[in-house]
Amino acid sequence: MSHWLIGWLIVMCVVPALVIIIGKFFTKKSSDYNFTKDVLVPVSTPLVVAMIGVVFTLQSEDQQKADQQTAVMREVMVSQDRHDTAFLVAIDTQLAAHLRRLQADKPITDLYTNFDEQAVFFFYGLHRSQIVNVWAAKGNLTFPRLWIADAFQMVADSLVENILGTEETDPRLDPKAEAVMYKYFGATAADSSGTKTTPLLIDFSALLDGKADARLTKEETEVLVNEFHLFQDRLHKKQIDQDELITDLFAADGLVEYSHTSIFADWYKMPEYAADKIPAKPPLPSDPPEGFMDAFKFYRNEGTNAWNRILIFVSPQSINPHK
């Protein structure tokens, strides 16, 4: 309810009440009829009409707010921004799962270890191609704050740089290899029924084993296979920080969950998670907000590490050196 409506309602109730009380006090009993006719009715009638008007105004205001909320929800739900971001998080979830499997104590020659390495590279390729779609839409509807969008971009880029061993814009990188990566993982191809499909992990594994793929020419296949072996070499030499990779993946997931929770807070009647509870800009709090930690209910240590990673990128002044 608006503050001006509350104030106006109080005035309309108090002033007539005072008039009636004072008038009644100074009116003799014999004049009760005249008081009712001359004072009570003229004062109370517009008061009742005004009260009815206030009620309708409040109902109209609530309905307008509900309509605006529904329109925003509809726009977010059907937006390409939400689809692209959700797809990227789904990719990163699979990437984190295979990284976890790689961290298990197994020999490099183990059959499943080799497949997990293929899976990590596969989901890394999808991640690298998908972030282009996310960054193509500036002013992403998924993120209610600019610093969240910036942090998401930084952790997503950090993952790529960690695996590459350098920035993606490094001129020393082979541009043809980058082009083949985007062609295979970013473009869609038609299957036998004419349906557009993204590459599958099992098909990528078969490609590495020598099976031809219609998406690539023979020369392009050689380039992609060579990229995988370069990645594998860096992985075996421990030049890729796997713990940092997983923390970056958790940070990205936490930011998206944090954003979605705030966007849907009004809809699900959870005012404690409303967007106005999110800091407008850095510096951010040293301790992770509960809205962010909701994504880490069962592994809060990982959530704290993910938040500290975010602080490194967008709010280094907030880092507590004693933690």
Shape: elongated
Give the helix proportion (percent range).
55-70%
The radius of gyration is 31 Å
Order of helix and strand elements from N to C terminus:
HHHHHHEEHHHHH
* Strands, total number: 2
How would the blueprint of this fold be written?
Elements: H1 3-26, H2 32-78, H3 80-102, H4 111-136, H5 146-164, H6 175-186, E1 189-190, E2 196-197, H7 201-208, H8 218-236, H9 242-263, H10 290-293, H11 300-314
Antiparallel strand pairs: 1-2
Question: Which features characterize this protein?
Answer:
1% strand, mainly alpha, 2 domains, single chain, 323 residues
TL;DR of this structure?
The protein is mainly α and 323 residues long. The protein has eleven helices and two strands; from the N terminus they run ααααααββααααα. Helix content is 68%, strand content 1%.
Describe the protein.
A hairpin with a 5-residue loop joins β1 (189-190) and β2. The chain starts with a helix and ends in a 9-residue tail after the last helix. Strands 1-2 form a two-stranded antiparallel ribbon. It is mainly α and 323 residues long. The chain folds into two domains: 3-68; 79-318, no CATH class. Helix content is 68%, strand content 1%. It is elongated and about 95 Å long. It is built from eleven helices and two strands.
